[in-house]
Amino acid sequence: ATPAAIFNVGFTQNLSKICVKGSNVIENDGPVPSLETSCAPQSDPYAGKLPVVSASACTVSDQNYAGVNNLVPGVYCGAFNFNGTGTLNLAPGLYVLKNTRWNLNSGWTVNGSGVTFYLADENSYIQVNSGVAMHVTAPTSGIYKDLLLYEPTGLPRSAFTINGSAGHTFKGLFYLPSRDITFNSVSSISSESISMVFGTLILDQIDWKFHDTGYSGGSGGGSGASQVVRLIR
Fold it and tell me: What are phi and psi of 180, to 5 degrees?
């Protein structure tokens, strides 16, 4: 793209390399350390390798939540509003979102270990509003090993926004190649191991700390050896 990347004033990072396929970038605050342009594109290591999910009949539809709530895996359809402040505890397993939106309002905390979210279509979405704290990790074994949030390939392009947070902790793979992602307004993320595949990415006032490069190949399976941010689209 022209430009393939824009680095605005105030961008700071501590990475061994930022790799951009395109040759045209905008550096509004002077030269960006560790930036390399015209990189050879990296093929998608997950395409065709992630588990196929059959979005069967709905098990939960159109709910409003407040206070402390405990949800279990299933097929969620329709509109889900998490109102006021509260705590959402997710039991381990696969959460299929089918033509649905989860609207997480400010003041909510989401906890889940061994959790996988599957967005079955372009209409499915998790709205993370300002002041939400999400602490979710992917399974460490089984068919959905390392998969935290993913979708099927070939969906129409759509927007996906994660707003300012009360502090997120993620571990696993975000595989959303059809989504144009924006992390807004002091988004704070800490992760020991994470990988992200997006259509496009905008980072606006973020504070991210990644301690490893995450997963590579298949449906996860092991950490990478180098610390590189690579833009391939």
Answer: -95, 105
